Amino acid sequence: MTAPTTNAAALILAAGRGERMRPLTDVHPKPLLHVRGKPLIQWHLEALETGGFHDVVINTAWLGEQIPERFGEHWPGGNVRPLHIRYSHEGRDFGGALETSGGIVRALPWLGEVSDVFWVMAGDVYTPGFRFTQDAVARFAASGRLAHLWLVPNPPHNPNGDFGLSADGRALNLPAGATGPRYTYSTIGLFRAALFTEARTGIAPGNPQGIHGKLAPVLRAGMDNGDISAELYTGAWTDVGTPARLEELNSSQT
């Protein structure tokens, strides 16, 4: 039985400078670089629309004006129900990207208008088979957890992984070298606003001062409290972090 349609919003993280992708990112922000015929971020937008998630926030900083110029506030045009896109302009408002937790807290007032539960994903990963599903949101909402992460097998550039995974689906804060495998965080997850309180992040609601904040310490503290679940995703996934990886994707159209 298919879960009923939810109103979960999504945040696409698109504010980074993309230093390793230079000189390509001297001209365009990394999420607008083309992968197999379309901007990298568009793969996420299409997948969200397919899953029935129509409320999107995109954070921007480096060359950030190019993203709303490309996608506007309603995309794609002409659909019965296009995506409603809002932009958290960190570069314009604070002079640069706020890092992941800082950016999430900044966007929370908009995300929270839709639901307490929301998707977060990096705008520079390519995972064409990943499905943003209503069932995943319903299961997470019923779980009481504060986050659910999708982990992937470790790519060559991150051989030691990020987090462990227990047999009962808990994400584990395993130190490097610990017994048991560690996997790489795909940068795709479901979250609750309660994970990003000022007590947990050190950032005031809405981040009015533009405080920078990393996500990993927040996740690790949540894992230590048993608040984070996870699952392993084994479909195609690429962190498009270098020109070589981009070239490899575009030279292999499969």
SSE layout:
Layout lengths: L8 E6 L19 E2 L2 E2 H12 L3 E6 L5 H6 L2 E2 L7 E7 H5 L4 H16 L2 E6 L2 E2 L7 H10 L3 E6 L10 E3 L5 E2 L9 E11 L5 H4 L14 H9 L3 E5 L5 E2 L3 H9 L3
Parallel strand pairs: 1-4, 1-7, 4-6, 9-13
Antiparallel strand pairs: 2-3, 5-6, 7-12, 8-14, 9-12, 10-11, 10-12
Short description:
With 254 residues, this protein is of the alpha/beta class. It has helices spanning 40-51, 66-71, 90-94, 99-114, 134-143, 198-201, 216-224, 243-251, and strands spanning 9-14, 34-35, 38-39, 55-60, 74-75, 83-89, 117-122, 125-126, 147-152, 163-165, 171-172, 182-192, 228-232, 238-239.
Largest sheet: 10 strands, mixed
Cα gyration radius (Å): 17 Å
Secondary structural class: alpha/beta
Which H/E pattern describes the elements?
Answer: EEEHEHEEHHEEHEEEEHHEEH
* Helical stretch tally: 8
Beta-strand content bin: 15-25%
Shape: globular
- In round numbers, the mean pLDDT is 91
Return residue spans where pLDDT drops below 50 for at least 5 consecutive residues: none
Helix content: 25-40%
Instruction: Give the N-terminus to C-terminus distance in angstroms.
Output: 32 Å
Q: Count the strands?
A: 14
